[in-house]
Each structure stands twice: as structure tokens, then as C-alpha cells.
Amino acid sequence: xxxxxxxxxxxxxxxxxxxxxxxxxxxxxxxxxxxxxxxxxxxxxxxxxxxxxxxxxxxxxxxxxxxxxxxxxxxxxxxxxxxxxxxxxxxxxxxxxxxxxxxxxxxxxxxxxxxxxxxxxxxxxxxxxxxxxxxxxxxxxxxxxxxxxxxxxxxxxxxxxxxxxxxxxxxxxxxxxxxxxxxxxxxxxxxxxxxxxxxxxxxxxxxxxxxxxxxxxxxxxxxxxxxxxxxxxxxxxxxxxxxxxxxxxxxxxxxxxxxxxxxxxxxxxxxxxxxxxxxxxxxxxxxxxxxxxxxxxxxxx
Length: 301
Fold this sequence. Notes:
Blueprint lengths: L2 H10 E7 L16 E6 L2 H16 L10 H11 L9 H5 L3 H13 L4 E2 L20 E7 L2 E11 L3 H15 L2 H13 L9 H12 L5 H7 L3 E11 L6 H19 L9 E10 L2 H14 L5
Parallel strand pairs: 2-7, 5-6, 6-7
Antiparallel strand pairs: 1-2, 3-4, 4-5
Helix pairs in contact: 1-2, 2-5, 2-11, 6-10
């Protein structure tokens, strides 16, 4: 990652606390299996700035990027590696998914120090012209001689309930053997675009070549590989709410949705789920700024 981009992320996004948080009395979510993480921010324009500048490295592996002509790389990426139609209406552009996905990618790399397995742009099809399917991040981290696969989900909405509810309704699918198998096969199909070649990961993926009928999710468990599932929730905080009050509303809504849906998680693999919260002001303004800079081809940092 460019040092200028890393510095911009660290300036714009600020660690606030982990949950449970004793001072505020807020517990972690009822479905989290490790601490949730709460971030704050300095200003809406700074968030827009890191999204705009993070598009290339979100969508393209670093070794494929020509940093000597970053403006060209940015334009090529926007037209071929993410869902973005310059001729679409602004309402359509505001609904694109890459805003939250770029932020999740940056937070995982900068604050949680993960490494990218394959940039998400390789999974996008310009012909389909729809959001790339599957998890929103494919990252990895070494752990005590083994590995954790960090496959994340990102939601960036005006209302926190609109961000949380779709995640909860999909949880039984997202944490299932069949869904994980399909995502791992998608990674296998992008073998030439992997940015990390880890022995444990290679052995896992090679097991499918040796036996395409193998259950890769069960193979993960047999090999001591865990799935870390971070769920990124970015939303607009109500002006009347204090920071921790806003987070508490998210935690309460997760609990209410868990009870309403009656979630059953069928995963046979070892997983760790947690939330990453980023309350913001002016969500629409953030997205509008990114759109304006994309369409005007604003210089990159």
C-alpha cells in the first residue's frame, strides 16, 4: 500500500474502543465470537478522500499496478474492475457497493494488518455489470504456524438498520459450507491473480484440484484453518446521539434481528465473527464527493 494512502487512512479513521466496553457499559453483539471494534472519523471529506484514493489497491493487486501512472490505473480500474457506470444517474451511483468494500479493505490492512489474497476487482465482470458476488474481502493472516482466512462483509448505508438487517438475514448462508466452498473455488479460478502464496493456503486449494468433490470447508477444519468473518457496518449517526449511544443502537438491533430471524448457522468449519462499526455524518455527501472526483478524474494522493 502506498505510504500516502496509509497515512490518509490513519488520519481519517480513528480507533475508538473494543466491545465489551466497560466505561459505556456496552457489550459485544450477541453473535460475535470475539471483540467488536468501533472506529470514529475526523471529517466526512477525509472519509471520501480515502475511499477515492483506495479504489485501485482495493480492486487490483499491488504488483499489477503501475504506480508511475496512477491516474491511468485509476481510470482503467473504475471502468473494468468495479461496478461504476459514468453515464448512470446519481441515484444509481449512490447505491454502488464499492464505498463500504474499499473502507473494509483499508481498515483490515491498515489497522488489523491482514494481507490480501486476491484483490476484489478480479472477481468483477463488466459484462454482468453487477456487484461482484461472494464475500467482500479475501484476506489472510498467519497464526501460530497456521493461517486465518479473513473473508469479510461490508455495508455502507444511511440508516444503521438498513446496513445490519441484510447481513443478519444472510448469515445462515454466509456461514455455510456450500457458500464458503463456492468462494474458495472462485479464488482457485483466479490462481494467477493471487497476491499471497502461503503453503497452508496452497495445500488447501490444491486439495480441490486433486479431488473436485472435496468439501473445502471441512478441509479447513481438518487443517486447523479458521475463517475470520468481519462485518463492517458504516452508517450515518443521528445528530442527537452521542457516539456510544449510536453504537448501542446497533448492538440492540443485532439482538432484535437475531431473535426475529431465528438464525441457524450451519458451518462445520471453525469461524470467528465480529463487527466493525464506523458511525459517520453526511453519508450521502461522502458518496457524492467520491462520485464527483471519479467523474472529474481528480488527481490522486
